Amino acid sequence: MKQIAQEQSAPARGAADAEERTRDRVLQGVLAHGPVSAADLGSALSLTPAAIRRHLEALERDQLIEVTLVRKQGAGAGRPARRYVIAPQGHAQLGNDYLDIAVESLSALREALGDEALEEFARRRFEEMERRYRPIVDAAGSDIADRTRALAGAMTRDGFVASTSVMAMGEAAKTVELPEHLLSSIQFCQGHCPVRDLAAQFPQFCEQETRMIASLLGVDVRRLSTMAGGAHVCTTHIPLARGKQQNHASHRGAPISKERSHD
User: Fold this and answer.
1) Helix (H) or strand (E) holding 107
2) Which residues in the chain belong to E strands, given as ranges?
């Protein structure tokens, strides 16, 4: 009887292991694509609607993911859509064992040598990253969108889960009589930050990361949100063709205001 029970439990153990592996895939999918709908995530992972709902409910129950309400661009005053993102506990499970030691070390550095020393530490860290990323970004050519996508790929390989999306501004383009693509921008999003909790206490890391992105892309960028500041993703606004806007305006003899050039 004992042998029969063992034989019967083996398939159950196999099913449980498969379920856990699938749940890990769903967690990684939310990390990579979030904020993401259940339908889009199920399609990306080739899971049935029932399966994706089961795993999402389990991950939400374990406080590894959470629901956020997102209003689609241009959707009007309708009800915001439900989207899944990684919860703080999910980020912790994905790895932040460094935190206590890092916070203690940086606090001691600041206490002994002041804020300037901490700023220098953060600057050197991101300058080293910039040196590694520079050949990859430069190989993408001069187009800002291509350079941004190359940077996203490089940072994803380092654990930042970066992605890009172009935000067209057709109405704004019409008001200044410029081609639509010249007033488009790109949003550069990071779904995971290996130093999120550290940056929450030492904002110099976010500041230096923003400086690095601007330097690599060769344009002024604007940080819209950070996970260290409580957002679900880090989002950076990148103008796609600021230099081309100025050239176009000079050819037409019509200056563009500073406010308009930041669109």
Assistant:
1) helix 99-113
2) 65-70, 81-86, 162-167, 185-190, 222-225, 234-239
In the sheet that holds 234-239, the strands lie side by side as 162-167, 185-190, 234-239, 222-225
Q: Tell me: the pLDDT tens digits for 234-253?
A: 999 999 865 443 333 333 33
pTM of full prediction above 0.85: no
Give the CA radius of gyration of the chain. Answer: 23
pLDDT of residue 140: 95
d(CA 69, CA 84): 9
What's the length of the chain?
263
d(CA 35, CA 38): 10
Residue 45 to residue 135: CA distance in whole angstroms: 33
